[in-house]
Amino acid sequence: MIYLDWASTSPPDRAILLEAAELAAACYGNPSSTHRLGTEARAKLEEARSRLALCLHATKEAARGCIVFTSGGSEANAIALLATLRKRSHARAAPLHIVASAIEHAAIHEQLRLLAGLGVETSFVRPGANGLVTPEAVAAAIRKETALVTVMAVNNETGAIQPLGDIVRAVACAARELGRATPPRVHADAVQAFGKIPFDPLKLGLSSAAFSAHKLRGPRGTGAMWLAATLEPFVVGGGQEGGIRPGTENLAGAWAFSNVAEQAVTSLASELQHARELEARLIAGMEAIPGAIVLPFGRKAGDTRYSPYILSASFPGLAGEVLARALSDEGIAVSTGSACASNAHAKERRVLAAMGVPPELSFGAIRISTGTLTLPADVDRFLETAARVYTRLKP
Amino acid sequence: MDTLYLVKLGEIILKLGNRKEFEDRLKADLKRRLGGALKRLELSHGRIALEVELERAAFVEAALARTPGINGFARAIRTEKQPEAVLAAALDIARAEVAQGKRAFKAESRRADKSFPLDSYGLSSEIGHLVLENCPGTRVDLHAPQFTIHAEIRDKAYVYASPIQGIRGLPTGSQGRGLLLLSGGIDSPVAGYLMARRGLALDAVYFHAYPYTSAEAQEKVIALARVLAGYTGGLSLYTIPFTATQMRIKQKAREESTTLMMRAAMMELAERLAFKIGANSLVTGESLGQVASQTAENLRFTNSRVKLPVFRPLVGLDKEETIELARKIGSYNISVLPYEDCCVLFSPKHPILRADMTRESGAYEELELGPLLDEALKGAERKAIPFSVPGF
Prior knowledge:
Shape of chain A: globular
Oligomer: heterodimer
Number of domains of chain A: 2
Number of helices of chain B: 13
Radius of gyration of chain B: 26 Å
Largest interface: A-B, 13 and 13 residues
CATH class of the largest domain in chain B: Alpha Beta
Shape of chain B: elongated
Radius of gyration of chain A: 21 Å
Order of helices and strands of chain A: EHHEHHEHEHEHEHEEHHEEHEHHHEH
CATH class of the largest domain in chain A: Alpha Beta
Number of domains of chain B: 2
Low-confidence stretches of chain B: none
Number of strands of chain A: 12
CATH topology of the largest domain in chain B: Rossmann fold
Mean pLDDT of chain A: 93
Mean pLDDT of chain B: 93
Largest sheet of chain A: 7 strands, mixed
Number of strands of chain B: 15
Distance between the termini of chain B: 20 Å
């Protein structure tokens, strides 16, 4: 199978998985236990934590803030969103407001819809046709009672890299103009950014960020959250992970995560170059297929506003789902938008629709995402097959 | 250990000359469905007494509740035709009901054997007295009883309470075999159920347009066929590859008539398959005016491609009624799964509402589907869906 669905998940690194399994079997003490087995496990866990922290920042001195291990990106996002509810318990009647981009992953979008049902006001900021959310648009949505702003670092369908540093500054500025003493927290779902493109939450001025291990060839069920300062969690329990993520710690997962993260960050520059080459090949090839359209319109190879790992393209007249199925039969794995949304009932393509892509085009869209193991020949095979299948199946 | 069920037959008892044929069909059908759970089956005077394995009573009840030709059934006690024995059984039955918290009751008796010393009225009042004396808190309520104790004096005496409703209708196969056009939607499984109830043995045909329709859509149809199999006593599901035909229609037909042409081609294929498998009729889930292809004019056109009778039991139902039936038979939750059975790509924005027979017949001929339909039929795959009931 030619695997071009890395944004959904990545083929795990076998050696790292096995090492983690060994560790899970050998170092089985509960990190909260005070006996030797417990303290050994605790030491390993903290080692994993500081190694992961170093992956986020250039120097050891800058490795401030804290890392909390979670069950994945979704949970890390949920912790940030749900923490806003704690403000409610303090002042029942006070209105609560969250600003989010309209193109967030379902882990955020659906959680926000749920919170909206509980009376939390939400503003969704639409991106431009280029898939980018502007700092001005986010700032304009800030209110006195805005508790949280959440904008993803890299969009999982278009690869658009959101200008988070500028957004953080614009939010602070808007808050000052409203006479607020402190700006709202700014959270970023960085699942498609961390380990793929340079990403330093401290430098960006974020309050928190969410990561996932399996996008970086790590195991499922492991994620992490970076926090500039601690927060009051909505889900509580045994006080693990600084009280922010209760539950006995997944040492093996944390260990594997720190390993894959180190690997990804060490080779980030060369991998990014590799991805840029594949992107150029993909975009050039796509432009050569009659009828096919790269999304967002006018995205060119080498445009640093987009992650080169992710590319959306539309094959008008043929449902993306049908093309993906036919490609699968030819031994090529791609997906239609987010894998998490393609299971759902939703027929509309939320992210593309928010960008103003007309339904005829979003209907025919597929997402191609590459990774470290992707070869130029894989891209060529994909292009040749997609062109052939499109001609054959387009009615 | 075995337990006994008394089964009340449906319309069969109204049949005159060929009643035995209907009864024999039902007996054979019950034997097939109940398999090893059935120990003994006796039919007399419009009742079937079934002795079944006690451990499999729940399965037997689920199976009986889905078998066409059965009005109702109840777990019963069979005794000798002596008043003492009947009364003792009635008290046992009453105690079981009272244990479930029921209090208000009545007794109903039928005496087919007039040599029994008590008449129906006498037996009912004896039962009533006995229960009132022995089960504290009970009271007689003739109008709104919480349970009814039935005593029937026939070849033997049968006593039971809380009969379970059957689906009525006629025994499977008594009306021959029909072929159901089964899609993944809400309507066609309900149509199949309704015609199975009318005594049709059913097979089903599904038109698969891979890759335009997904493997999941096909799995969904198989799941629906499994639900239906509980009522039909098992069925064969035929999958006909439809992609080439669909593509030809999309390429050559006028856009507004694509759905109509597709329906006509499906009817034609279904009929050819029906002849092959010995089915005497087609069954569809169409309902008058529900969608564009189901107006009288359009039904006339699609119908004109076939000679077999086409049964459309939903023709006069509205969607709400169909959905209610779909929930009842257990197909609804499967039908509403998101996998599309007919790709939006092929549905025109403004379909024809009233087909002109001459024009559309000509247009259909011009598509020259003949060889494609031959190929499609050759590619039909049969999957046996054995009888089963959910949970067993």
